[in-house]
Design goal:
The structure is a single chain. Helix content is about 25%, strand content about 25%. It is an alpha/beta fold and about 350 residues long. The chain has 2 domains: about 5-160 and about 300-354, Alpha-Beta Complex (Quinone Oxidoreductase, Chain A, domain 1), CATH 3.90.180.10; about 165-295, Rossmann fold (3-Layer(aba) Sandwich), CATH 3.40.50.720. The strands form 4 sheets. Strands 3, 4, 5, 8, 9, 16 and 17 form a 7-stranded mixed β-sheet that branches. A hairpin with an 8-residue loop joins strand 1 and strand 2. The longest helix has 13 residues, at about 300-315. The protein is globular. It binds NADP nicotinamide-adenine-dinucleotide phosphate and zinc ion. Zinc ion binds near residues 42, 44 and 64.
């Protein structure tokens, strides 16, 4: 029997999130059924729910930073049993046989594209997928992660499933490590995980921020300093000195001010996906020092497990502010104002009161 599921959904771009119920599929042979304990609030949830990106399917139940307890498994499931703590991130499926899927980079699936945890096609129930702002989810075992952090840390583990992997993957891909000077642009959900992870990888980390008041936090999180990006003199003292910059900003902005800080052969990788395009950067900033401007999308499932294990080993979780689901619109408003320290996480117990 399908499971009645309670959730919060947006029914239109300008409609506030409100209670919504639907049914999750019965676990199929390779499925894991999870009662959701916590779900992080990613800026992508806001972009999608508010229709800032094209293609939002309504009703929209966001949420792709999910931690919960396994309550049922299909006959063919081998890696999970009832009672286990499990995580689900941004993907719940992919084609499984294209070159990217073969390489464990399911996020770049070349045939069907990855199936999003929300706003993707639901091939079993029809319609589209519903995410983690809900009390229950059913996911193919191949897209479920093992969580080994202490149970007391689970709310702060949830954001690792997107903010953690989205920063870990490019830091690994561009081989960040000891002896390197690394910049993180934007100290929000992604940015604060980027600081923690890059510091744990041994790099010297600097934060670029529009919020001078975040300096003490940046240093506490592992940065050497915070550079206010609007302060041209402070920026100029770091010209041509960075090996790698990870840009997490969720709004269109001037990329040249950061490209100019890269060394010869340095790279700036964009992970923020603003609603409107960035102004085109200057070609000169790229060609004269053979600098690169790149992008990166979340991370594959195997790499997500590697990231969770890395975070466990290094004692890393997210700095969170727990909210009830009824407060989601206030959380979105604060997120738009860069007022989040540093990730909102929904306590799914609050759904029961909805
Ligand atoms: P967030 O928590 O809202 O953090 C974004 C930070 O960017 C803010 O805290 C702020 O930091 C800075 N910022 C905001 N507006 C700015 C502006 N106008 N100019 C300069 N800086 C500004 O968001 P998030 O959840 O980290 O997500 C960041 C972006 O990444 C979003 O666009 C999201 O959709 C995207 N994303 C991409 C992937 C991927 O796979 N590529 C995955 C997840 C999310 P300061 O106060 O320090 O300036
Ligand atoms: Zn996300």
């Amino acid at each position: 029997m399908p499971t009645p599921t309670n959730a919060y959904a947006a029914t239109a771009p300008d409609a506030p999130m409100a209670p919504f119920s639907f049914e999750r599929r019965d676990p199929q042979a390779s499925d894991v059924a999870i009662d959701i304990l916590y779900c992080g609030v990613c800026h992508s949830d806001l972009h999608t729910a508010k229709g800032e990106w094209e293609g939002t399917l309504y009703p929209c139940v966001p949420g792709h930073e999910i931690v919960g307890r396994v309550v049922a498994v299909g006959d063919a499931v081998t890696r999970f049993k009832v009672g286990d703590i499990a995580g689900v991130g941004c993907m719940v499926g992919s084609c499984g046989h294209c070159p990217s899927c073969d390489d464990g980079e399911e996020q770049y699936c070349e045939t069907t594209g990855f199936v999003g945890t929300y706003n993707g096609p639901d091939t079993v129930m029809g319609g589209h997928t519903f995410g983690g702002y809900s009390d229950h989810i059913v996911v193919d075992e191949g897209f479920v992660l093992k969580v080994t952090h202490d149970e007391g840390d689970l709310a702060a583990v949830a954001p690792l499933l997107c903010a953690g992997i989205t920063t870990y993957s490019p830091l690994r891909h561009w081989k960040v490590g000891p002896g390197q000077k690394v910049g993180i642009v934007g100290l929000g959900g992604l940015g604060h995980m980027g600081v923690k992870i890059a510091a744990a990888m041994g790099a010297e980390v600097y934060v670029f921020s529009t919020s001078p008041g975040k300096r003490d936090d940046a240093i506490r999180l592992g940065a050497k300093d915070l550079i206010v990006s609007k302060d041209a003199d402070a920026m100029a003292t770091h010209a041509n000195s960075f090996d790698f910059i990870l840009n997490t900003v969720a709004a269109a902005h001037d990329l040249d001010q950061f490209l100019a800080l890269l060394k010869r052969d340095g790279t700036m990788t964009l992970v923020g996906v603003p609603e409107t395009p960035h102004p085109s950067p200057s070609v000169g900033n790229l060609v004269f020092r053979r600098r690169a401007l790149a992008g990166s999308l979340i991370g594959g499932i195997a790499e997500t497990q590697e990231m969770l294990d890395f975070c466990k080993e290094h004692g890393l979780t997210s700095d969170i502010e727990m909210i009830a689901i009824q407060d989601i619109e206030t959380a979105y408003d604060r997120m738009v104002k860069s007022d989040v320290k540093y990730r909102f996480v929904i306590d799914m117990q609050s759904l029961k009161a909805a």
